[in-house]
Recover the amino acids of this structure.
């Protein structure tokens, strides 16, 4: 297995930009995305080897959901 070493640097840069509104809008966008994905999860009942029932989440991964439904919903506003 190839091992790579990475060095991460962070710098503080002083500025006069108000980023609070931007960060809040981004947080709301992420929350809306998660809510939409969560509401489109399909739950399937399956039995394991011991006969116990389990609920398995099926997350939509098709192109229509990601590229049309979700994208159109998020770009609407």
């Amino acid at each position: 297995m190839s091992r790579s070493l990475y060095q991460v640097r962070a710098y503080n840069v002083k500025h006069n930009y108000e980023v609070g509104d931007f960060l809040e809008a981004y947080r709301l966008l992420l929350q809306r995305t998660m809510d939409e994905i969560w509401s489109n999860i399909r739950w399937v009942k399956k039995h394991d080897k011991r006969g116990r029932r389990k609920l398995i989440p099926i997350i939509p991964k098709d192109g229509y959901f990601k590229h049309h439904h979700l994208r159109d919903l998020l770009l609407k506003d």
Q: What stands out?
A: The mean pLDDT is 87. The chain has two helices and two strands.
